[in-house]
């Protein structure tokens, strides 16, 4: 049985759910729901486009397999998204293109879960005299970073390999 809009409307009218007065309201609500659905799809696709897939949950982590994915993560964290409660999984060695941007800065901490999965990430990071340089510059508040191997160069101010500074904060 194919349900058309007129069949659905007539069934709703038969049960007193729809009448001439509220039909316009229902159409307006349908448009609002449609817009919300489109926004949800847009933001889901946007997150997947930034990373190699996943939705950031423990069972379906964001996939990191390129330097561009790590650059997107750095840009988002440095822009204020701490990814608290979100999960990332590195699925490939990232060595053909070196990572050049530190993830997290003095006012933007990473607070997510990052599983390096034993993969190697090549760094070529240079920071200013009073900045922290590492794959993760600043982490805090429940961040979990493990099984990461780094190679390459980090130069400048205060340097490390994987994590430069852990900020312990009262929440």
Write the layout of secondary structure elements.
Layout lengths: L4 H10 L8 H28 L11 E3 L2 H12 L8 E4 L3 E6 L13 E3 L4 E7 L5 E2 L2 E5 L3 E3 L2 E7 L2 E2 L3 E5 L4
Total number of distinct structural domains: 2
Q: Percent of residues in helical segments?
A: 25-40%
Q: Quick one: overall form? A: elongated
Over all CA atoms, what is the radius of gyration?
Answer: 23 Å
Strand content: 25-35%
Overall mean pLDDT stands at 79
Q: Give the terminus-to-terminus CA distance.
A: 56 Å
Q: Overview of this structure, please?
A:
With 171 residues, the chain is α/β, with parallel strands linked by helices. The chain folds into two domains: 5-45; 53-167, no CATH class. The protein is built from three helices and eleven strands. It has helices at 5-14, 23-50, 67-78, and strands at residues 62-64, 87-90, 94-99, 113-115, 120-126, 132-133, 136-140, 144-146, 149-155, 158-159, 163-167. The radius of gyration is 23 Å and the shape is elongated.
Quick tags:
171 residues, single chain, 4-stranded parallel sheet, 3-stranded parallel sheet, 11 strands, 2 domains, alpha/beta
Short synopsis of the structure:
The protein has helices at residues 5-14, 23-50, 67-78; strands at residues 62-64, 87-90, 94-99, 113-115, 120-126, 132-133, 136-140, 144-146, 149-155, 158-159, 163-167.
């Amino acid at each position: 049985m194919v349900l058309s809009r007129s069949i659905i409307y007539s069934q709703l009218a038969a049960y007193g759910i729809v009448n001439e007065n509220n039909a316009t309201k229902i159409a307006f609500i349908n448009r609002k729901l449609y817009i919300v659905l489109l926004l949800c799809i847009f933001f889901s696709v946007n997150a997947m486009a930034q990373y190699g897939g996943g939705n950031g949950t423990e069972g379906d982590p964001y996939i990191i397999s390129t330097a561009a994915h790590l650059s997107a993560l750095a840009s988002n964290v440095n822009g204020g998204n701490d990814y608290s409660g979100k999960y990332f999984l590195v699925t490939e060695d990232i060595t053909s293109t070196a990572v050049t941007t530190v993830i997290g800065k003095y006012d933007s901490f990473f607070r997510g879960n990052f599983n390096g999965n034993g993969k190697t990430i090549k760094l070529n990071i240079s920071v200013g005299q009073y900045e922290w340089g590492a794959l993760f510059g600043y982490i805090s508040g429940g961040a979990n970073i493990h099984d990461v191997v780094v190679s390459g160069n980090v130069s400048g101010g205060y340097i490390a390999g994987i994590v430069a500074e852990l900020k312990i904060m009262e929440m």
